[in-house]
């Protein structure tokens, strides 16, 4: 996590930066500490800074940026850093942005700790600092348990001479004129987050950690998605901006014919499936057309009901019903009905009746003859 802490003098940037340094294992970098260390060590940049301070002048941005660059390239700053009290104006912010781009460590977060004016006055006038370990206290909000002594190491607590109301008022006016525009600068870049710095130090720290963790998670997700996009581009034979063309991209044109052949096979499968489906539909229609005449030819209603029930059955049963010669007996019985055997026997009955009449006719004249002889 690479961040810049913003806030007016006395807003609690230093206290929060020390806690974040311990929890996230990243160094807190303060320009004041860098200047003092460079002067004590007698480095070339330290000598330039000492000459400017001895002359009552401000240390130039070039000297400050050189010290920050030397600090950021050290091993402990590779995992991230916390810039406390820098940058102080727009030109310094632009110079820092260019430097971080050169070393490949862009900012992840600009965190503003916001405090009202009256609270700032109380904090700065009541501030006490341990000369041994640098632990900070406040006689109004967070006093030490031992009067004038540090609770951590027992060192003497120091009250800075410039921590008076007049000096503090001037420092706040300078902050409003020069440093406050940084809020708009980082807001436009989408890096700004704000935490209210009023209340208990622990409560403020919980809010700070919540913001830092959320930004850290977002950055992790973004870095993973970038890595995935780069991996996909390499597989496809493309190069990302700033990257060399991967060797796999040279062999990519040879793999195209195989891919084209695969596409042709994939296209052929749907076509074959369509033809088989069409043939199955045609066969089904023909079978249905053949079954309809058999149902029409069946004369009785019971056979029609059986034919309707057999529609939902398997193909094997439907074939058996279709092969049974149900219609053949009907067509052969029609000529038998035309012979009409009952009509051929009628002449026999007529002959019998004629014979009976003849017998009766012969007997009557016999009776008449007997009466004549008497």
Write the layout of secondary structure elements.
Elements: E1 2-6, H1 13-24, E2 28-30, H2 31-41, H3 44-54, H4 61-72, E3 81-84, H5 90-103, E4 109-114, H6 117-125, E5 127-130, E6 136-138, E7 157-158, H7 165-179, H8 181-188, E8 192-196, H9 201-235, H10 252-297, H11 301-309, H12 315-323, H13 328-339, H14 341-344, H15 346-373
Parallel strand pairs: 1-3, 1-4, 2-3, 4-8
Antiparallel strand pairs: 5-6, 5-7
Question: What is shown here, in short?
Answer:
With 374 residues, the protein is α/β, with parallel strands linked by helices.
List keywords for this structure.
about 375 residues, alpha/beta, three-stranded antiparallel β-sheet, 15 helices, about 10% strand, globular, disordered C terminus
- Report the principal-axis shape: globular
Number of strands: 8
Please describe the biggest sheet, giving its number of strands, its sense, and whether it closes into a barrel: 5 strands, parallel
Sheet with the most strands: spatial strand order: 2-3-1-4-8
Instruction: Give the ordered list of helices and strands.
Output: EHEHHHEHEHEEEHHEHHHHHHH
Low-confidence stretches: 239-266, 268-275, 287-299, 309-328, 330-334, 336-374
**Backbone CA Rg:** 56 Å
Q: Between the first and last Cα atoms, what is the distance in angstroms?
A: 168 Å
Secondary structure class reads alpha/beta
Which band does the percent of strand residues land in?
A: 5-15%
- Our count of helices gives 15
């Amino acid at each position: 996590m690479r961040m810049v802490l913003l806030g007016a003098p006395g807003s609690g940037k230093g206290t929060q930066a020390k806690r974040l340094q311990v929890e996230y294992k990243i160094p807190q970098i303060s320009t004041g500490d860098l200047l003092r260390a460079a002067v004590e060590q007698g480095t070339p940049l330290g000598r330039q800074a000492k000459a400017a301070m001895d002359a009552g002048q401000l240390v130039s941005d070039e000297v400050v940026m050189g010290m920050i660059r030397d600090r950021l390239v050290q091993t402990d700053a590779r995992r991230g850093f916390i810039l406390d009290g820098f940058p102080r104006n727009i030109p310094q912010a632009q110079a820092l942005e260019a430097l971080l781009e050169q070393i490949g460590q862009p900012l992840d977060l600009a965190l503003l700790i916001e405090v009202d004016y009256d609270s700032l006055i109380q904090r700065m006038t009541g501030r006490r600092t341990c000369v041994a370990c640098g632990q900070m206290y406040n006689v109004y909000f967070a006093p030490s348990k031992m009067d004038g002594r540090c609770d951590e190491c027992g060192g003497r607590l120091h009250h800075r001479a410039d921590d008076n109301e007049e000096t503090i008022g001037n420092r706040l006016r300078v902050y409003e004129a020069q440093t406050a525009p940084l809020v708009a600068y980082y807001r436009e870049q989408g890096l700004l987050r704000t935490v209210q710095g009023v209340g208990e130090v622990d409560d403020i720290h919980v809010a700070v950690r919540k913001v830092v963790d959320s930004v850290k998670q977002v950055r992790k997700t973004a870095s993973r998605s970038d890595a995935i996009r780069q991996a996909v581009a390499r597989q496809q034979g493309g190069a990302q901006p700033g990257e060399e063309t991967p060797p796999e991209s040279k062999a990519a044109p040879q793999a195209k014919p195989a891919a084209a052949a695969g596409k042709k096979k994939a296209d052929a499968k749907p076509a074959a499936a369509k033809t088989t489906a069409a043939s199955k539909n045609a066969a089904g229609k023909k079978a249905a057309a053949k079954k309809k005449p058999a149902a029409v030819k069946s004369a009785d209603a019971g056979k029609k009901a059986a034919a309707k029930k057999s529609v939902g059955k398997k193909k094997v049963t439907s074939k058996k019903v279709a092969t049974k010669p149900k219609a053949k007996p009907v067509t052969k019985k029609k000529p038998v009905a035309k012979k009409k055997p009952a009509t051929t026997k009628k002449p026999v009955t007529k002959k019998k009746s004629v014979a009976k009449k003849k017998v009766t006719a012969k007997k009557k004249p016999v009776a008449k003859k007997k009466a004549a002889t008497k």
